[in-house]
Amino acid sequence: MSRLVVVSNRVADPRKAAAGGLAVALGDSLQQTGGMWFGWSGTIVEDGPTGEGELHQQQAGQVLLATIDLCRDDHDSYYLGYSNNVLWPVFHNRLDLASFSAGYVTGYRRVNQLFARKLMPLLQPDDIVWVHDYHMIPLAAELRAMGCKNRIGFFLHIPLPPQIIFASIPQHDWLMRSLFAYDLVGLQAQQDVQHFEHYVRNEAAGEVLGDNLYRAYGSMLRCAAFPIGIDVQEFEALTQAKDARDMYETMSREYSSRRLLLGIDRLDYSKGIPQRVQAFRELLANYPENRRSATLIQIASPTRESVDAYADIRRELESLCGAINGDYGELDWMPVRYIHRVVARRRVPGLCRASAVGLVTPLRDGMNLVAKEYVVAQNPDDPGVLVLSRFAGAAEQLKEALLVNPYDVHGTAEVIQHALSMPLEERKLRHQRLLARIREFDVHWWRNAFMEALRNAPGEHRVAR
Ligand code: ADQ
Questions:
Q1: Does the Cβ of 303 fall within 6 Å of ligand 1?
Q2: pLDDT tier at 308, thresholds 50, 70, 90
Q3: 412 in helix, strand or coil?
Q4: What's the CA-to-centroid distance between 234 and ligand 1, angstroms?
Q5: Model confidence, pTM
Q6: CATH code given to domain 232-440
Q7: Which CATH superfamily is domain 4-229+444-455 in?
């Protein structure tokens, strides 16, 4: 069996309990094939030279963890700059938040070249390479330029934007050309594949060959949707474990006469948290029976705080929550509990289970795993209702959720009211159907489907051209 090599910006030790579903799922495959996980070490060297970085290698069971330090300049232009000030906002339809500084793309390219240079000597001829996410789009092209003939697949965890938005990136042509150095490109949703196809036809003058095959820039690749799932068994076990049960009991006791609504996200502008809080405000305004009764718990963990847009969204949210609590709060009831922290993963299922409504309302999201976790954590005999944004990749699969347009604050409030008053039988039916689909398309399905497609991809990069 070929060895698997996973490449991603951050590298996780698959043996550590804190590692999430993805680390565990990829770790499983890596353990089976005796593979390698390659990426940034997480270390920033303050005065180091650009385009250089020390390689560290550590054996973790059957898996070799190979990581590289980055100097401050490289980190800031590659990670904060191009990845998180260009690709992240544009791919989430936020052109207004992008800043196209020339130094960013230079650093992005330089770091991808550095990764390719360090990875190339570690590769064996039969290795299958699986590259993850927007930080690494040009990696395969850099490896090919060094003569790499391995099968290389790419999975984009975030959405691929419509052609007209993608084309606003000054380097859009280079980015798409770079994707064609892969044998397989995996996207989260069918809609992303449509955006890819539209670009290939109209912007790259490429050909759509059928069977998910595309030809452009003199290369052929396969591009298809592989909606990522969660490790359902792991999450069920977490739900049954003591920490989650304690959390559930505490919340159920404390809110015994109230209905809980829950949001759990990274504090990212793509997650639609201010709009969600405004919808909750509208709910209290238009349906007064919810006052003193409904409580929104919003957990928003700090993320990318050195990027300006993230400091702005934090201030906006603090002010919104403060205003609602000021306007509607009572001495014995605060409408919004906003917590700017990570909640320990082992407690998350308890919180989900104690909540009558799960609010997953991003303005744009590749998939959104919280939606799937919320469903798995529910008590099947008395499940809560998932309110889900139609702009999350998950909406293509989770059709029995109550779908909303998060920009429509009034409409979202109406749907939340519907969720709060949904009869038990309907809640059970929707929950059963959602759970069945989440179970079928779990993280193992995702990994196996992608690996199978990569093994069978046309692979014309392996013949000398
Ligand atoms: P993210 O935008 O990070 O990932 P998302 O799918 O929403 O993520 O969540 C990832 C995980 O983080 C979930 O397991 C969730 O429970 C956990 N999490 C989030 N906020 C938390 C908090 N405040 N406290 C504790 N845990 C928290 C990107 C894409 C997504 C895509 C994933 C996977 O943006 O669209 O679903 O990758 O491909």
A1: no
A2: confident
A3: helix
A4: 16
A5: 0.97
A6: 3.40.50.2000
A7: Glycogen Phosphorylase B; (3.40.50.2000)
Model confidence band, residue 21 (pLDDT cutoffs 50, 70, 90): low
Higher-pLDDT residue of 31 and 359 is 359
DSSP bridge partners of 59: 64
User: Where is pLDDT greater, at 461 or 404?
Assistant: 404
DSSP states of 339-368: E-SPPPTTTHHHHHHH-SEEEE--SSBS--
C-beta of 352 in contact with ligand 1 (< 6 A): no
Ranges of each domain in the chain: 4-229+444-455, 232-440
Residues labelled as active-site residues: 157, 365
Tell me the CA–centroid distance for residue 424 and ligand 1, in Å.
Answer: 29
Q: Which two tokens stand for residue 280?
A: 């909750």
- The pLDDT tens digits for 41-98 are 999 999 999 999 999 999 998 899 999 999 999 999 999 999 999 999 999 999 999 9
Burial class of residue 391 (count of CB atoms within 10 Å of its CB; 0-12, 13-18, 19+): buried
Residue 221: C-alpha distances to residues 146, 166, 193, 200, 279 (Å): 19, 19, 13, 11, 43
Longest dimension (CA), the chain: 74
In total, the chain counts a number of residues equal to 465
Residue with tokens 């919320």: 374
Q: Which of 370, 372, 374 to mutate to test the pocket of ligand 1 (most atoms within 8 A of CB)?
A: 370
Q: Where are the beta strands (DSSP E) in 350-428?
A: 357-360, 385-389, 402-404
How many other C-beta atoms are found inside a 10 Å radius of the C-beta of residue 32? Answer: 11
Place of tokens 């130094």: 103
Please provide the average confidence, as pLDDT, over all residues in the chain.
94
Tell me how far the alpha carbon of residue 264 lies from the centroid of ligand 1, in angstroms.
9
For residue 188, give the ligand 1 atom closest to its CA.
Answer: 38
- Let me know: does 25 contact 446? Beta carbons within 8 Å: yes
Q: From residue 2, give the alpha-carbon distance in Å to each of 36, 151, 167.
A: 12, 10, 37
Cβ atoms within 10 Å of 308's Cβ, excluding its own: 12
